[in-house]
Amino acid sequence: MMPEPAFFVIMVAKIIVVFGLMVLSVAYLTWLERKVLGHIQVRLGPMRVGPHGLLQPFADVLKLMFKEDIVPQAADRVLYFLAPTLALIASFISFAVIPFGDRVRLFGRSIDLVITDVNIGLLFVFGVASLGIYGIVLGGWASNNKYALLGGLRSAAQMISYELSLGLSVVGVLMLSRSLSLVEIVNAQSQAWFIVLQPIGFLIFLICAVAETNRAPFDLPEAETELVAGFHVEYSSIKFAMYFMAEYANMITVSAMATTLFLGGWRGPFLPPVVWFLGKLFLFIFLFIWLRATLPRFRYDQLMRFGWKFLLPVALANIMITAAFVALR
Amino acid sequence: MEWLVFGPLAAVALATAVSVIVLRNPIYCALSLVGTFFALSGLYLLLQAQFIAVVQVIVYAGAIMVLFLFVIMLLDVGHEPPPWLRQDTPRLVLGIGLVTLLLLELAVAIGSWVSHGIRGSYTSDLVNAVGNTQLVGRLLFTDFLIPFEITSFILLIAIVGAMVLAKR
Fold it and tell me: A76 to chain B: which residues are within 8 Å by CB?
């Protein structure tokens, strides 16, 4: 059975729109981060390029594209090229299963505002996220630099450790929604957002999400004071930009996941669903930047102890309690 | 239609599986294995087993192979020739013998295979109706409860064992 041609047209249109918006938001996230950090530190942030520095991202992109691309002599060339690409792909692809709005009617057809609704959506996101590690580990190794290697290894250890708690923190949500499809999870929150029913799960998810995206206070993979810049020390020009884009795209994806799983996705009164979705997403992104401006970096042993001896047991306890409630209901 | 997807996936699976043992750099071997896992995961998708497909990626490609890479990178076991290039007659004879046996077995298996269509009570229609993950979960906690629990015990023992060895 072949689907009708309109299906392909709609699909391609959705992919192009979502991808384009992602790229644009990534560019403007760099601007937002510098602006917010600036104002928190009583500075103005970028002001020169365009009004309030609004054209700064384009200037940055141009600069990065035309800079000399330096490859270390003893680097493993294939993997050195492959690693940033992997990081970028992994950070962009999970948005395919995240619903960003209700079903709308357009030109006489009903269109779901999600690229594809798969019945294992949540697991898909986790699977893709776990691949992001390769971009970082391989980049660190292929650069043939000991600081880069240390940064890559740290990040692998950190991401694997926090992925466990991240996965466990959403089990409560799964028990309540009885589905792995993100569309179904949003639908299950029509009565109450899961942040109300799963406050502990939400907090654990949020902490692990910050750690997964390697953002402060969990930015050990690129701890400037110890590792120069971490896994991307040797990267320059557009490859460096790709790592940067991957980090910001990951921030968007993780914020979208938090919105979908705990804040009811696109659900909300009065305003159109897409606006609600973007608004909630923005809240999380602002929180990310705010955290970076506020908190100092963890030490490596603190990070590991916190992940394994605090987050993991609490996440497990949360599952037990939720299971008891679901069973008794 | 199915062949269009199956063909490339099977080719990738075979090619990457061969390069796991043929390539010289252990890092590339490990990455080839990751490629194999991906191709296999695609094959699972073709069989309507979405849950297994994703778990394959999460567990093997996402966790286990990362740890493999970890070890290879730290040991820096770069540049010795792969075992199949070393002159080692007894092993060569043994290897050729085993491969011949395996090929014979495969030939017999394929020769005697007759297609009966889809059998068993869990058809892909049923799986899609109930939900892939839901069905796997239900079976694990009913029909296969005891093997499931035993497996988790074995894994627990392995973890404790690893801890004990590491602390020595």
Answer: 27
Cβ–Cβ of A120/B73 closer than 8 Å? no
SS3 annotation, chain A? CCCCHHHHHHHHHHHHHHHHHHHHHHHHHHHHHHHHHHHHCCCCCCCCCCHHHCCHHHHHHHHHHHCCCCCCCCCCHHHHHHHHHHHHHHHHHHHHHCCCCCCEEECCEEECCCCCCCCCHHHHHHHHHHHHHHHHHHHHHHCCCHHHHHHHHHHHHHHHHHHHHHHHHCHHHHHHHCCCCHHHHHHCCCCCCHHHHCHHHHHHHHHHHHHHCCCCCCCHHHCHHHHCCHHHCCCCHHHHHHHHHHHHHHHHHHHHHHHHHHCCCCCCCCCCHHHHHHHHHHHHHHHHHHHHHHCCCCCHHHHHHHHHHHHHHHHHHHHHHHHHHHHHC
- The mean pLDDT of B129-158, rounded to a whole number, is 87
Please list every residue in chain A whose beta carbon sits closer than 8 Å to the beta carbon of residue B67: 160
Nearest to A120 among B31, B54, B74 (CB): B54
- Mutation target among B23, B40, B55, B58 for the A interface, most CBs of A within 10 A: B58
Residues of chain A in contact with residue B51, where contact means CB-CB under 8 angstroms, are 120, 123
Region of poorest pLDDT, from A11-20, B59-68, B69-78:
B69-78
Q: So what's the ipTM on this one?
A: 0.78
